[in-house]
Amino acid sequence: MVNQSYENILTRCEGRVGLVQINRPQARNALNTPTMIEIVAALQLFDADEGIGCLVLTGDERAFAAGADIKQMANASVVEMLNAPFLDYWDRLQSLRKPLIAAVSGWCLGGGCELAMACDMIIASESAKFGQPEITIGVIPGAGGTQRLTLAVGKAVAMEMVLNNRHLSAEEALRYGLVNRVVPVESVLDEAMRLAAEIAARPPVAVQLAKEAINRAFEMPLSEGLLAERRSFAMLFATQDQKEGMAAFIEKRPPVWQGC
Ligand code: CAA
Prior knowledge:
Low-confidence stretches: none
Number of domains: 2
Shape: globular
Oligomer: single chain
CATH class of the largest domain: Alpha Beta
Structural class: alpha/beta
Number of helices: 12
Bound molecules: acetoacetyl-coenzyme A
Strand content: 15-25%
């Protein structure tokens, strides 16, 4: 599917994978309101499409995204920033049911880093540079940077990045657990699409519940998270795919998933 009606993104499907590419190269993919509206709308459309099993979000070689659009925000008042739904668009990624993988090359800064961290996994190219430079323009991260970054890399590194604009190379990001793997620039999108295609070929109800259960680890005390996990595990015994998966194992054959 190619949708010509977007101005700031490109979209397409490859098999059961839906791809959204941020397309404001002249602004290093800076995220203004129209771009965030389109990103969220396209991801939500893919999420609702039963033919799609996994989503990929990417930028271009120079930038995944260089942050929220500074030119859009520069003259805003406190009331405008508090009332504007702009920063809510990052949170909307949280309600996606299907896994979302970020493929990151080049600059991944500020709101761009926050967008990548709102995804479920990050595949980085060797050129990826992660940072929260908001302190250099007189503010702090506003779309999850102080929270998701700290959960991902720990307090010490997060403090340095947010308070003193320390950038992480792709290799450092891998070492600190921010990204899943680092690959050459030319293969970053292929690698993300390959991983997405593999996940999209797995039993979809189990994939959805697995993603939900892992994300609960960030929201709930351990006892509540374990209880929710146990219930989701039990619930999967109501699916055809559980019967098929276990029968296929016992019969020593590959499973054929029904998606129900
Ligand atoms: N907002 C608006 N425009 C941006 C932008 C941003 N975040 N980042 C880059 N651009 C624009 C530049 O203004 C420039 O436009 P013009 O050609 O019209 O001058 C164009 O993109 C190219 O930028 P550069 O010439 O600076 O490109 P470069 O390759 O030399 O540098 C860069 C790239 C290091 C990413 C640099 O552009 C930069 O530092 N950008 C700002 C990064 C930043 O501070 N991000 C945080 C934003 S605030 C935020 O995100 C808040 C939040 O938590 C939600």
